[in-house]
Amino acid sequence: MTHRPDLEAIAALPRLDGPGSVVPIRHYGRWASAVLVAFLGGGYLYLLATSDNMRWDVTYDYLFHPAVMSGLWLTIQLTVASMALAIVSGAMLGFMRLSQNPVLRSVSWWVIWFLRGTPLLVQLLFWYFLASLFPFLSLTIPFGPTLFSVDTNSLINQFGAAVLGLGLNEGAYMAEIYRAGILSVDKGQTEAAQSVGMSRARLMRRIVMPQAMRFIIPPTGNATISMLKTTSVVLIIGLPDLLTSVQLIYARNFQQIPLLAVACFWYLVCTTALTIVQSRLERHYSRGSRVEGGLDLVSLLGPLLRPRRASREVRP
Amino acid sequence: MTVQPSFEAGTTLAPMVVARGVEKSFGAVRVLRGIDLDVMPGQVVCLIGPSGSGKTTFLRCINLLEKIDRGLLAVDGRHIGYRVGRDGRLCEMTEREICRQRRDIGMVFQRFNLFQHMTALENVIEGPVGVLGENRREATARARELLKRVGLEHKADSFPAELSGGQQQRVAIARALAMRPKLILFDEPTSALDPELVGEVLDVMRTLAHSGMTMVIVTHEIAFARDIADLVVFMDEGQVVESGPPAEVLANPRQERTRKFLLSVRGEDGHAR
Fold first, then answer.
1. φ, ψ for residue A209, nearest 5 deg
2. Which of A81, A91, B206, B238 has its CA 20 to 30 A from that of B227?
């Protein structure tokens, strides 16, 4: 049996009257979780802030300690230099992988195979101990005279070995990021570029890469942030980066946690800066496309940080 | 099957496109099984036929987006993609030579393929400035003129994602025209459009046809083909089944396969434009 209300009853139903005219649904789960998080998180922060064992005064004292500062500076230098090498070598390997030249393609395949297949630590040590394999690096004309020769250890010092190891290893991963980014651009773009007579090099530069950058930047940002922290492995060849400097200090004064907090503070500062750079780059390359979400600190921190001339985006 | 150009006798013009026995396979699939076709300068040729008949593949061969396996395919009197060596054998062209050939052959794609990161205006000037080395200011002025010709001067600064399909396709036509091509290829230019947007694109193409541009069009718009084509070519299973003026091929097809195809198309689209 069905009950059919009459037209008058339906017409007499209350109507919507714009926003605010209806009683919103109550999200009890959200309230409950907020209370729980406030209780647990607040309690933990309270403990941290007030605990006598935490020794914030030590953290504060060492925040700008010269050893920490020089460690931080080394970490930044290593990150920038290694990522620069990774981006350049990754681009070369990536383009070689997609080349029409079968020799370049297979060379790239094997180099990536090796760099990704062996531990970073081993590669780092390999560059460090290169001198024991080749004590001198020489430029020689085949079957002719030597043009110049140089002591390997003077050419590749600790910093050089660290950058070569970190940069080339990351470059192998970057190559795959480039390759995926380039392949993600619609093939029609290439065909259209060809149909107006563009050469492969030109269509890569003008048409494919600007569009591929949107796919390349987020994983590159990840890689850079990851590199920032991976640089601490240079401890193995005796370079005092941020984490190593901090460890050296707490080895003397046994204030492990407060000093690790110092390291965390600086790592977070660097990561935040990188995130801002990343979202600006993403904004720049989103030209002509809809804006994707993501960690958009720029809009989070407000107009203070907003680039003066934001590139135009298409609103859906 | 030789195709007679529908040109008045006495013309001494060489054909713009000459195809003789063009064959092409994708793996084991024989897509083109010996295509013969002449396109005279200023002629508008419509390729029609069921999907999978090889029309699009043949069109793509004309500007070397696909390579043919056998036969002769020449544009403006020269092999497309090959030059004749001293010993008379064909030699593959270098990339530079291929690019030079493609400059003269415009192409309009089914899915528009506008450069997504560039505005409509930038799409149009990219070829003239980047490839032909034209002065940017002059190229911009001409691009605006071309956009006006396709009725989109007010959309010069819009990105492709901000334009409707019909508008995008009109920008794509302007982009092809900006290269001052001798020939424009259209690959189902209205197939990806909403029905109400088809007309605006066909209007632009019609004007272009009347201006004397040489055009090869793969299309499903039978009524449009009847309207503007000098030559209609019906293809099926990689061969030219029948060709001639629209009054013959479309109104009085001699081949049974052509008749069947036209009937099936009309069945779906009885009120064709």
1. -60, -45
2. B238
User: Which tens digits make up the pLDDT trace of B117-129?
Assistant: 999 999 999 999 9
Residues A239-262 as b or e (16 or more Cβ within 10 Å = b): bbbbbbbbbebbeeeebeebbebb
Helix (H) / strand (E) element for A148: namely: strand A146-151
Angle at A306 between CA A305 and CA A307, to 5 degrees: 115
Same domain, B176 and B190: no
Name the residue range of residue B236's domain: 1-104+182-273
- Around Cβ A14, how many Cβ atoms within 10 Å? 7
Among A192, A196, A200, whose Cβ lies nearest the Cβ of B131?
A196
Instruction: Identify whether residues B31 and B119 lie together within a single domain.
Output: no
Task: Give dist(CA A233, CA A231) in Å, integer.
Answer: 5
How far apart are the two ends of chain B, measured CA to CA in Å? 31
| Parallel/antiparallel/unpaired status of strands B70-75 and B78-79 | antiparallel
Measured between beta carbons, which residues in chain A are less than 8 angstroms from residue B103? 196-197
- Here the tokens at position A125 are 């040590």
Pick from B133, B251, B79, B242: nearest CA to A199: B133
Does B15 lie in the same domain as B133?
no
Interfacial A residues in 180-219 facing B (CB < 8 Å) = 186, 188-189, 191-200, 202, 206-207, 210-211
Interface contact A198-B160, CB threshold 8 A: no
Mean pLDDT for all residues in chain B: 91
Model pLDDT, residue A305: 44
Contact status of A287 with chain B (Cβ, < 8 Å): yes
Contact call for B159 and A206, based on CB within 8 A:
no
Pairs from A46-53 (Cβ < 8 Å, separation ≥ 24): A53/A257
Residues B198 and B100 in one domain: yes
**Cα within 13 Å of Cα(A290), Cβ side:** 6
Q: Are residues B43 and B160 in the same domain?
A: no
Mean pLDDT over B235-256 rounds to 94
Measured between alpha carbons, how far is A219 from A86 in angstroms, rounded to an integer? 13
What is the count of structural domains for chain B?
Answer: 2
Q: What's the pLDDT band for A145 if we cut at 50, 70, 90?
A: confident
pLDDT tens for residues A207-248?
999 999 999 999 999 999 999 999 988 888 888 899 999 999
The sign of the CA dihedral A34, A40, A41, A42 is positive
A10-51 pLDDT, tens digit per residue, is 888 888 888 888 888 899 999 999 999 999 999 999 988 888
Alpha helices (runs of H) in A98-208, residue ranges in sequence order: 102-117, 120-128, 130-133, 152-155, 158-183, 187-195, 200-203
Could you tell me the CA-to-CA distances from A287 to A10, A291, B158, B161, B212 in Å, in that order? 50, 9, 11, 10, 37
Cross-strand pairs, B234: B48, B242
